[in-house]
Amino acid sequence: MTAEKRRAAENAEFRTGRILCVRYLVAIMSIFSFLFGGCSKQPASAPQPTSQVQLSKSLAAPPEVTSEEEEGFHDLIFYIQDYKQLSDGSQSIRGMGTYKGRQLGLEIVLGPTWKAGSLGKDIPLVTYQGIVTYRSTGSDSDSFIQVLDELYSTKISPKAMNKETKFTGISLEGDPRDLAKGPVKIKLFFESDKQDEYAEFFTNIQLAQHRLEVHEKDPDYRLPVIKSLLAH
């Protein structure tokens, strides 16, 4: 499917209605496409047990966040400086990185409740749906959104990152309820009543390798992603 056809399909989905349950149905369908062939930016393959997934290299210090980008996409990598479980059962991940000498940072919190689901009886994959919160850690996070604005060429010139922004998350791999079990890949959705503010992107976590990744879904979502993270 071409990018033009994908955008047309997404616009058609928006026109059918903004009801939340409809969007979740579309999300499940896009996950199916991501895993089994379709309009993902990477070649799709059948899901594998976590133990069989090839792990990325471990990090020992904050990296240059753009050091592993693919051509045409701005996929950022951060060093997991701190991980802790909060009193309510949430999991907090603090990531650090650099960009041309600037220090970047953010905190991501996986909510305590994740509902297990399935894409179908013939699909050997359990998905989990929950809440993922992006939190500012101060000036490092302000630098993060400013660099993201630069990389995305969105030209908003943000002053600061929002104190926290909540996203709906659906796992593509792993178990977000317990990051110690292995790699976790989560697709995030920012819901809005305004069509041009709806956003999707990915957050990947490899706790043992100290890796936190913020990957974009599609260049069309760059502006909505920035707006969702922007301090108002």
Q: Describe the sheet with the most strands.
A: 8 strands, antiparallel, barrel
Q: Which runs of at least 5 residues are low in confidence (pLDDT < 50)? A: 5-22, 32-40, 42-52
The tally of structural domains comes to 1
Mean model confidence by pLDDT: 83
Give the tally of β-strands. Answer: 9
Through-space gap between termini: 37 Å
> What is the rounded Rg?
17 Å
Helix percentage: 10-25%
Query: Strand portion, in percent?
Result: 25-35%
Order of strands side by side in the largest beta sheet? 1-2-3-5-6-7-8-9
What does this protein look like?
The protein has an eight-stranded antiparallel β-barrel. It is globular, with a radius of gyration of 17 Å. About 16% of the residues have low confidence. A hairpin with a 5-residue loop joins strand 1 and strand 2. The protein has 232 residues and is α+β, with helices and mostly antiparallel strands. The chain is built from four helices and nine strands, in the order ααβββββαββββα. The protein has one domain. 22% of the residues lie in helices and 31% in strands. The longest helix has 17 residues. Helix 3 runs antiparallel to helix 4.
